[in-house]
Automatic annotation (TrEMBL):
Lineage: Eukaryota, Metazoa, Chordata, Craniata, Vertebrata
Gene Ontology cellular component annotations, sorted alphabetically: cytoplasm; nucleus
GO MF terms, alphabetically ordered: DNA binding; DNA-binding transcription factor activity
Name of the protein this chain belongs to: STAT6 protein
Top-level division of the source organism's lineage: Eukaryota
């Protein structure tokens, strides 16, 4: 129902999720789309809100400025620039790993620490970098003598 070349000022977060998912699957050429957990991470990133629940984000809308004009806090790029970098990296280098669900990808550093806290030494995971466009961060477990 969209008029060509007319961009809505705001769109519901739920519609944004659908669009990001379709873009991701088409660009990467995979049948493995984004999951609910990925949407939660993306919502935290675009809204700069790490205290809200998944349900809290469902009633929010995203502005064009939030999506593609405003620089993310503490970064030198917009949400879209960052997301596009993830698309490019996944398409070029990580497609098979993503398609096999071997990359968690869209996950916060804080949640990674929680996930890995009970895992044995040598356990690792890959996530998309928060601070570098098109980068990957490897988180791993190495326990010191103090535990």
């Amino acid at each position: 129902d969209r008029v060509p070349f007319v961009v809505a000022e705001r769109v519901p977060w739920e519609k944004m999720c659908d669009t990001l998912n379709l873009k991701f699957m088409a660009e990467v050429q995979t049948t493995k789309g984004l999951l609910k957990e990925h949407y939660f991470f993306l919502a935290q990133k675009i809204f700069n809100d790490h205290s809200a629940s998944l349900e809290d984000f469902q009633s929010r809308s995203v502005s064009w400025a939030q999506f593609n004009k405003e620089i993310l806090p503490g970064r030198g790029f917009t949400f879209w620039q960052w997301f596009d970098g993830v698309l490019d990296l996944t398409k070029r280098c990580l497609k098979s790993y993503w398609s096999d669900r071997l990359i968690i990808g869209f996950i916060s550093k804080q949640y990674v620490c929680k996930l890995l806290s009970t895992e044995p030494d040598g356990t690792f995971l890959l996530r998309f970098s928060d601070s570098e466009i098109g980068g990957v961060t490897i988180a791993h477990v190495i326990r010191g003598k103090d535990g």
